[in-house]
Amino acid sequence: MRLLLIAAIAALALPSLAETPAVTPSTTPTTASGDDPYLWLEDVHGERAMQWVEKENARSLAVLKGDPRYETFHQEALKIVNATDRIPAPELIGTTVYNFWQDPTNVRGLWRRASPASYATAAPAWETVLDLDKLSADEKANWVWHGANCPPPTYRRCLIGLSDGGEDADTQREFDLTTKSFVDGGFNLPRSKQTADWLDDDTLIVARDWGPGTMTASSYPFVVKTLKRGQSLDQATEVFRGKSDDVGVSPTVLHDGDGHRVVLIVRNVDFFHQETYQLTSKGAVRLYSPAKVDLHGLLDGRLIFTTLQDWRGHAAGELLSYRPEELLSESPADSSGGHLIFAPNPRQSIEQAAITAHRVVAAIYDNVRGRLVSFTPDGESWTHIPIPTEPNSSVGVSAASDVNDQIYYGVEGFLAPSHLWQADVATSAQADIKDLPARFDASGDAVDQYEATSTDGTKIPYFVVHPKGMKLDGSNPTILYAYGGFQVSMLPSYSGAIGKLWLERGGVFVLANIRGGGEFGPAWHEAGLKTKRQAIYDDFAAVGKDLIARGITSPRRLGIQGGSNGGLLMGVEFNQHPELWHAVDIQVPLLDMLRFEHIGAGASWVGEYGSVGVPEERAFLETISPYQNLKAGGAYPEPFFVTATSDDRVTPVHARKMAAKMEAMGLPFLFFENTNGGHAASANQQERAERVALEFTYLARKLMD
Q1: φ, ψ (nearest 5 deg) of residue 45
Q2: How wide is the angle at C-alpha 449 spanned by C-alphas 443 and 454, nearest 5°?
Q3: What's the count of helices (H) and strands (E) in the chain, helices before strands?
């Protein structure tokens, strides 16, 4: 089970972004690269730093909002994000459908519910459970929804997570679904980066900041305690302690439809490697599951997981089933069998595995094209039944019931609006219950998939969304997007903003499936780890060069876009191949790779990037770190940095320092730092619309003029 990953920047404008855990600003005055004149910008809320931010915001916003296209883009983006005919995403709590909803009236959002029958209608009879706008006004806070944990069998009491302004740290408060109110005198965990779950109606298991010496260098908790109703935090009982140099430790309580319960504690030794413990009456007992693993849940008392490494005769990427007692020894005796659920081939990946009361439903991708398969245990083997879906689409389970075998799943494509299906995987009955209206005219567009050849001969697939009959003369304004890290796959998705603000204006959108992602399983990711990372950057450049060679675009018309780890990708490409791009949209990035371990949760990403404390890894990081490799007098395109003050994951520090260094060198750039929004750089729909309009204005100025 991996820790919190870098969230999507915004579903509005981008295919899903992705990963890197949370962050608190560093005050460490040292630098790994000698004197750094911009360390003062690491004081995130400092007066001098904020004055600089205000100055740069004012300068850049005057340019972008002064462009005649901005207001049109803004209104179009607002119409998309505020549309009331969006598909309300389902969450199943027991047999009831819950949904969190934001619109112009409910800016912070409503948590609401309906019966499945009502939800399936065109106009569900929603019952408001919690109004975040009213709560924020009453409590004078800027609450951002972090979700609810409402366990079986009663599904009555919940822990609701609320973040002030969108940071990863939150408060967690007990809520009663029957009375639709917070419980007087109930559990109330104050602000912290924390994980909490229910052991029973009156006991929580919690990892959080318990005081000095309980948080890792990565800013995550490593001490787990149980907390009984009525106890203060200092009365909680410690049940597990990791180490301060771990990434973090988190508890989780798994339930299945047959009433089995397994309490696990996951010690993340680094971002990708973990030790798993089961909490029993005798304390925490080690389970020898794979060190690299994605744990999906519990079925029939069996742990369902994907191994991300070769393990016990299983190949990396296989979907497996093991009972906890089969994992008590590092050298297991003969076991019951029935372990292998599905083994992907080299061009397949398991993107998701959802668990109902009696089945596992997996989203399996073949060459980045998805399908759904239902798996059922049958003695010492598993039977499987395909769930019919549209070919050449992206598919994923939106919600799965642990009471029965009902699921909701979504199907979409670059040009095909999302469809939400309801299915009973026990009977194969299914129905298309909700369809997203088209947000743009796609009748004149088409999608192709090509391959570029990287420097080492590896074939890199990429999708091109383009006007039909596109001239191959290099004149097409093109956005190339990628992520390339943390085994996060870039899948085809329907974006109203890309369609309306870009494709309808004759633009081309390209999604590259470069190494570092998970499109072809763990090996595709590991091919770009640490000192092998240049392969990722070569893959991206190869796609850019292939687009130019095919005549789809030219350096004058080619822009690139990426966020978080993808923001690092943008910074590297900005330095290594400035001649290929005319626009570089750098969203919530990492850029100072010689200090990233000292900025927020950077220490937790050593498993991906390497460490400056390891000579070989430092030597490589020195070759690619965008901040250190920026050169005065370089012929760079004018980039646009987008970040957020309240991002406590990557922080705005990297973007600030890179921009300030460019300013001192007399190099052109644009910069926008939202003071809310966390790592998504926007906390509500209105802020998302503003950010998207700014980015597309920048891209249009650079590529369409």
Answers
A1: -105, 10
A2: 145
A3: 13, 37
Report the half-sphere exposure of 414 (CA within 13 A, side-chain side). 25
The DSSP output letter for 437 is P
Active-site hit among 418, 564, 604, 682: 564
**Percentage of the chain surpassing pLDDT 90?**
88
Mean pLDDT confidence for 326-337? 75
Q: Return the higher-pLDDT residue of 23 and 578.
A: 578
pLDDT of 174-227, one tens digit each? 999 999 999 999 999 999 999 999 999 999 999 999 999 999 999 999 999 999
Which residues are registered as beta bridge partners of 371? 364
Structural contact between residues 162 and 191, judged by C-beta atoms closer than 8 angstroms: no
Residue 645 CA to its chain's centroid (Å): 19
Q: Answer for the pair 363, 352: CB distance below 8 angstroms, yes or no.
A: yes
Query: Is 564 among the catalytic positions?
Result: yes
Residues 223-276: pLDDT tens digits? Answer: 999 999 999 999 999 999 999 999 999 999 999 999 999 999 999 999 999 999
> Would the pTM of this model clear 0.70, i.e. be above it?
yes
Q: Please spell the DSSP secondary structure of 659-697, one letter per residue.
A: HHHHHHHT---EEEEESS-GGGT-SSHHHHHHHHHHHHH
Interatomic CA distance for residues 53 and 108, integer angstroms: 25
Burial 547-562 (b: 16+ CB within 10 A, else e): bbeeebbbbebbbbbb
In which residue are the tokens 């969190």 written?
100
Question: Which residues, including other chains, have CB under 8 Å from residue 40's CB and lie 6 or more apart?
Answer: 46, 48, 49
Neighbour count for residue 118 (Cβ, 10 Å): 14
- Residue showing tokens 């602000």: 191
- Whether 380 contacts 336, CB under 8 Å: yes
Per-residue pLDDT band at 333 (split at 50, 70, 90): low
DSSP one-letter code for 34: B
- β partners of residue 524: none
Q: Is 261 exposed, middle or buried (0-12, 13-18, 19+ CB in 10 A)?
A: middle
Dist. CA 489–CA 78, nearest whole Å? 28
598 catalytic, yes or no?
Answer: no
Active-site position among 454, 598, 679, 682: 679
Alpha-carbon gap, residue 23 to 679, rounded angstroms: 9
